[in-house]
Amino acid sequence: MPPENPETLLTIQQRRERLSRLNTLRNEVSDVPQIGITVVGKTINVNGGDIPIRTYVPIPNESLGESVDQSFPLLVWYHGGGWALGDLESEELVCRAISLRKRLSVINVAYRLSPEFQFPVGLLDCYETTKWAASNILELKADPHKGFLVGGISAGGNFAAVISLLARDDPFFKTHPLTGQILQVPAVCMSSVYPDRWKDQLVSTEELAEAPVLTKWSIKQFIEQYGSPDPHDPRVSPLLAESHKGLPPAYLQICGMDPLRDEGIVYEKVLAENGVPTKIDIYPGLPHGFAGIIPHLKASQKWKDELAAGIDWLLGQGEEKKRDIST
């Protein structure tokens, strides 16, 4: 094994402080408007803990044909950070922009982090918050029949993929099933248990072991902090789920210079093979999470525009399914 990368010598607290400074700077210089939506921060008690959330609800706009009692599609969003980093500020701009520009009711979840809270605490925080959302649609001015999406980036993308699997098989979601999943640079399978069928296509972890932003060594550290859960558990490696049939449509955004690149590409193939509608956008030569780090890049704007188009596509899949049922 190559020498330990110095990056892994950073403590989790040092990483958290670095990310907090980055988020503060990015949010201060953002051009995302702070008007046109109602933003509310609160704490809910789920999974035996008090979980901070922030809700973003569009203010009805008559010029868009919206009435004062307008309801909106629902999106629950999970931030990234290797299950150990991040908070509500990490995805503030993403959630605000989606709510304002795409007219969705959005929930931003600050799940409990490792190593203080190890697997599956953070996952269950997000899952139970998603159930809370489905049970509080009046407060959120949401209509899950117009769309009920889950999404996230990196570790949050892992949560979105896993929660899509859990919700598919949970009677709770029979009334309000998930209608779409947004998977941005998701971690979907621990490299120690890559399936034999796909191993020759899962090479980015080694090829890009020292890529910018996310390295093989930092992934290893994050997994250890997460509690080194059983890598075969589909709640950790959703690629290994017994079946992917019946999952909601998936939109994926994948970075070309990312150790997790091939996991996302293969996961899209597996979903499509199982009859799940998919749409994927790939950003060649760009590192993990680049759009949040350097938001003014032309490619970052492309990422945002394609996320907006991906949301439209997911919502359209729900409308298409309704038409098929009605005919």
UniProtKB/TrEMBL annotation:
Q: Name one GO molecular function term.
A: hydrolase activity
Under the heading InterPro entries, the entry gives: AB_hydrolase_3, AB_hydrolase_fold, GDXG_lipolytic_enzyme
- Keywords of this entry: Hydrolase
Q: Specify the domain of life of the species encoding this protein.
A: Eukaryota
Q: Does the keyword Hydrolase apply?
A: yes
Domain named Alpha/beta hydrolase fold-3 is located at 75-291
Q: What is this protein called?
A: Alpha/beta hydrolase fold-3 domain-containing protein
**What is the originating organism of this protein?**
Sistotremastrum suecicum HHB10207 ss-3
